[in-house]
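Notes continue from the previous slide.

Worked example: a multi-chain complex. Inputs as given:
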Amino acid sequence: MSSTLTATFPASPDPAARALTRKCDTTGLNVCLEAERFIKFNAVSAVVFLLIGGIAALLLALTRWQAVHLLRVDWFYRILTLHGLNMLIFWILFFEVAVLYFACTTPLNARLFSAKVAWAGFAQMVTGALMVNYIILKGQADVLMTSYLPLLAHPLFYLGIILVATGTLTGVFNFFATLYVARRDRTYEGSVPLVTFGATAAAIIAVVTLLHGAIVMIPTFTFSMGWTAQPDPMWYRMIWWGLGHQSQQVNVCAMVAVWYLIAQLATGARPINETVCRTAFLLYVLFINIASAHHLLVDPAVGATWKIWNTSYAMYLAVLASMIHGFTVPASVELAMREKGHTKGLFGWVVALPWRNPAFAGAVLSVLIFGFIGGITGVTLGTQQINIIAHNTLRITGHFHATVVGGTSLAFMALAYYVIPLIFRRDFIWRPAARIQPWLFGGGILLVSLGMSFAGSMGVPRRIYDIDQSGAFGAAAHLMLGVMGLGALAAVAGLLLFVLLCVGTILAGERNEGRPMADWGVASTLAGAREGSLADDHWAVKGTVALTAVFLVCFAVYYFANWKALADVWPVR
Amino acid sequence: MNHQTKEPLLKRVLDNPWLLLVLGVLIPFLSYTAWGWIELVLVQPAALP
């Protein structure tokens, strides 16, 4: 099979095709100029919506931090709606379309199927996102991201979301059409590279997601216009989570593809077993979408069999996929490092990793936060019985800030440290600040997640403006909300630094056309080292095996502690 | 005579994005959406006290 980043190319493209591409001065790969343009448009839009969502995050954290309690009640729910949509939908979907356009062109030596289709998708997405943000800030859509019926927003809110969904679907169509044309024209031989395969898995999940979005949003829009009757609220919740949760599974696939890509760029790591990695992506494609049922675990209209099948038995196949990736990514890095000569002890290779490379540091933090915090809490909270003591508490919010923010957003930020120099062809400004940024953002979001999780463990609810009204929460809960607030300050500082670095680089970074991008740092190779020297050594990744054992112990302790907490709800004396 | 070795089934599945697309849409639709929808349809209206 091919490598993570590149396929096998049968021959150089014809002269007409070459005129529409450029050769990357760093990687030597052909870059489709049309795809490059839309990667830029989508990436810049993504960062703009990230900034809006980040400012909203700061305002929300300073309100849920009860000692500060910044916003008025109406503005709290308005900003919460704004935060959810910009962070979970707009920032992520725009960046994912950029990733899709890269993954279907450069690694396959192919050209984008259609610039007109790309324009059509992009225009719909931008129009829709602007409509949604406008109507939220106008105060006519205080319905939170979920917009559960019978809450009703202005029709522009639903129409905007429909446009974002159809625009993304148009981009996904362009991705699949490019894959088809590349295969038909034999721009590559054999299997697609792993990064393209991961992006394909993300695109398939996006199709399911966006179809659910259309099924639920179109009748809700027509209801908001007064044209049709109100859809059933329970039906709305079920179909809406086919959009809301599954859109985060698109992130997971794209994030894992980014992990493999950065591992190769920074350390030369190649997947230790391509078939296993691809099979893990297949498990995502088949089983990860049904995890949407987590959100309905306390809804009375669906039965226990449906809930348990969709959140446990079948879902665990997708969890298995995450654990495979969580093993193979660090294992491939360890193997590459040991083959470079860093063989000292169990973890000597860890010390020699290129920690000063912000893309690599961001990817490592993404793996750790996603796996140890997001993954463990997700599987535990998704267990039907345990969910009853956690549903609608801040524990849920703590979980998904570890997966979506600490995992996906951090991985996408990490990728930007390569995307901007390679696609915008400008070297980053303030490189020392860039080296700090992933740690500031990752450390902050870790505190946010832990603060929320512990506060939620004490029963603090999510989506509530003022917990003091109940008089039920003591100093410990307030302390944890303070931890969350301090973490949010650090995370938003990291986010603003990231935006500043990106915008500053695009506007004023030194051009690197005609030369390789400024090196962030890669793993060093010691004298006498030889690539492939450990290919047959089954114990070459013993450091990763030890780390995996630590992970499994943490998983077991957390899981059984929660069963204990559940048992304590009805003590038998 | 053609002596080409047939590729393993799993590799052929993994290399076929269209098959993956069909399976990726069908399985969650049946397991989550269709089954869940049927459960909702079968809910009896509650009797007023």
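Summary box: The radius of gyration of chain A is 23 Å. Chain A touches chain B through 39 residues (CB under 8 Å).
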